[in-house]
């Protein structure tokens, strides 16, 4: 029932989300979406409605600004708060704490659509959603009521803090300590590469309260302004420039024990459960980029003439375009299957989320890169959106577990009983 209530909000809002599509989206709309890559195929009427809301938001509120946000490294907080008004700040957070209560598949559909307007901003929104879900799922009533409503409206923004300078792929070796002193944990250590770091309000931090390994890790929420919480310089990045990335530093940072999510020692499990959904989300962001790039490439091939005819007459390029479309649809099918598996808590869910992240982020990067190639020299110019999609999705092969780590997880699942 909650989801239906939420949906009617989406439907209502869709009527006043602007009609005009600009920039690259003008061209997409004029030519229409080829039915074989139509992302609405197979969706319910309700899903098509909020997919449309997300596409419209991407076209009107994000796409016109994505180049400027990238160039000037602007974190578009107001735009994200507008997205939150549509229910996108807590898409799979429960309605009783302000979330939309939608499914993992619904979430994937929304992030795919939003990413066509700006991958980097959507990817940050996806991390924020992951943190919101972690607090909603593993927090007690007091914690959920304290944090989730403001996260759902994006009045407060969240960051996920797992990686450390010496603990990347081997995240369970993290060294940030949380020493129990009275009714507080005193945190010392540092986190690396934290998305939103410095500009966000709520830090979901994995830290060591016990011995070595995964079982010694707990998860605590640290609020901005807590004495002893500091930040490194803003990193200069290849892409994902509309969101800041900084080190997060703890120096005798005292956090109430009541800020711990779940039990002591449960932190690594909470972190990994968050990432299962995070991997579907980030793969969905790659789908959106690839979807946009296939259409940009198709438009360019139809318009650009060489050797006296449109590039679209060239069979080599036709075949390449066909391969791109096939990879896109195959990626989308796998991502949506993983979303189903996670929603239903199936035993194959963890491996499928890893497969989806591995396959979709690799294939979608290839698609976007091929689209850039089809643009020739123009593809290398910042006037053309295709280069930004390439730059923005490259990091999806690295974060939320590298694609090598995805292979480790899949292989572990395959060999488990042998
Ligand atoms: C822009 C950006 C944003 C990020 N945001 C966040 C965030 O918000 N929160 C957060 O916690 N982290 C974040 N990260 C960190 C990210 O998750 C890590 O960079 C990633 O997990 C890899 O860790 P590493 O960089 O230390 O690489 P390493 O672990 O040093 O790996 C280097 C290379 O070796 C490979 N490798 C390592 N071990 C193996 C193995 N056993 N078998 C095969 N290959 C292996 C890796 O796959 C990789 O290719 C972000 C990173 C970036 C770049």
TrEMBL record:
Pathway: Amino-acid degradation; L-valine degradation. Residues 44-154 form the Acyl-CoA dehydrogenase/oxidase N-terminal domain. PROSITE patterns: ACYL_COA_DH_1. The keyword Flavoprotein applies. PANTHER family: ISOBUTYRYL-COA DEHYDROGENASE, ISOBUTYRYL-COA DEHYDROGENASE, MITOCHONDRIAL. The gene is acad8. InterPro entries: Acyl-CoA_DH_CS, Acyl-CoA_Oxase/DH_mid-dom, Acyl-CoA_Oxase/DH_mid-dom_sf, AcylCo_DH-like_C, AcylCo_DH/oxidase_C, AcylCoA_DH/ox_N, AcylCoA_DH/ox_N_sf, AcylCoA_DH/oxidase_NM_dom_sf. Keywords: Branched-chain amino acid catabolism, FAD, Flavoprotein, Oxidoreductase, Transit peptide. Belongs to the acyl-CoA dehydrogenase family. One of its GO terms (molecular function) is short-chain 2-methyl fatty acyl-CoA dehydrogenase activity. Residues 160-253 form the Acyl-CoA oxidase/dehydrogenase middle domain. It holds the Pfam family Acyl-CoA_dh_N. Isobutyryl-CoA dehydrogenase which catalyzes the conversion of 2-methylpropanoyl-CoA to (2E)-2-methylpropenoyl-CoA in the valine catabolic pathway. To a lesser extent, also able to catalyze the oxidation of (2S)-2-methylbutanoyl-CoA. Its EC number is 1.3.8.5. The keyword Transferase does not apply. Its cofactor is FAD. GO terms for cellular component: mitochondrion. Transmembrane segments: none annotated. It comes from Clupea harengus (Atlantic herring). Residues 265-414 form the Acyl-CoA dehydrogenase/oxidase C-terminal domain. It catalyses: propanoyl-CoA + oxidized [electron-transfer flavoprotein] + H(+) = acryloyl-CoA + reduced [electron-transfer flavoprotein]; (2S)-2-methylbutanoyl-CoA + oxidized [electron-transfer flavoprotein] + H(+) = (2E)-2-methylbut-2-enoyl-CoA + reduced [electron-transfer flavoprotein]; 2-methylpropanoyl-CoA + oxidized [electron-transfer flavoprotein] + H(+) = 2-methylpropenoyl-CoA + reduced [electron-transfer flavoprotein]. CDD domains: IBD (cd01162). This is Isobutyryl-CoA dehydrogenase, mitochondrial. The active site is at 400 (proton acceptor). One of its GO terms (biological process) is lipid metabolic process.
